[in-house]
Amino acid sequence: MAKHVTFNDIVQARKTISRQDYSELEAHHSWLSPDEMEKMTERCFQTAARMESGKESKRESTYRGLECLSDKGKDKLDAVINSCTDAVLDEQDRQFYLFEKIQDSEMIALASMDCSEECSKKALRRGQSDAREAKRCYRRMRDMETSRTGKHNNNNGSASSFSVSDEHSAGAIPILKTGNTKGDIRESALPQFQEVMC
Fold first, then answer.
1. Compositional bias of type Polar residues: which residue ranges (predicted)?
2. Dist CA 34 CA 46 (whole Å)
């Protein structure tokens, strides 16, 4: 099956201010402070401990993304990584034995892909689930705004995106906040670009 990309014929552009132009208050509302980062990390480990004990997650938290903080999850991840590493090294050894050099990098890539295929499928399913949830959230937010203002927004919400790069204010940690309520912070291990389809 060939991969392909399609683009929406309707192009929407929204202007936004650069982070360099944020006021101190805007930066405070957009970036985690070191103290907030420490508290969030502490909550993650508390939630992971609850997960490992077999208890249900609390209403305002989720176990999603914390699986590797548990002993069982860490062991499972380590097994996948080791299996993939072994497959790649075995394929390299095979090629050195037969050809005395790396002859076919595609075969090495295939060895890695075979081991990580289940992880890729899970990630795809999770991404599709997230896309559905994002659409539901967007519709709820739009409906709340419509009921609050009485105005209907004709924006069909085809796509929006945000960018987080390695440049940030001194004393701030480059993790974008999505709200100011407890438990409503989405974090990212490294600065990155994310595309959100609504």
1. 152-164
2. 18
Q: Is 18 inside any structural domain?
A: no
State how far the alpha carbon of 83 is from the alpha carbons of 66, 69, 73, 172, in Å: 22, 20, 15, 38
Q: Is residue 13 part of a domain?
A: no
Domain span at residue 107 reads: 23-196
More confident residue, 193 or 144: 144
Number of compact structural domains in the chain = 1
**Residue 82: inside a domain:** yes
Query: With bands split at pLDDT 50, 70 and 90, how would you rate the model's confidence at 149?
Result: confident
Task: Kindly state whether residue 58 falls inside one of the protein's structural domains.
Answer: yes
Q: For residues 69 and 121, give the distance between their C-alpha atoms in angstroms, rounded to a whole number.
A: 22
Residue 193 β-bridge partners:
163
Q: Which two tokens stand for residue 65?
A: 């993304």
34: left (phi over 0), alpha (psi -120 to 50) or beta: alpha
Look at the chain and count its residues: 198
Separation of first and last alpha carbons in the chain? 26
pLDDT tens digit string along 10-69? 988 888 889 899 999 998 888 899 999 999 999 888 888 888 888 887 777 778 888 888
The answer to whether residues 198 and 134 touch, using CB atoms and an 8 Å cutoff, is yes
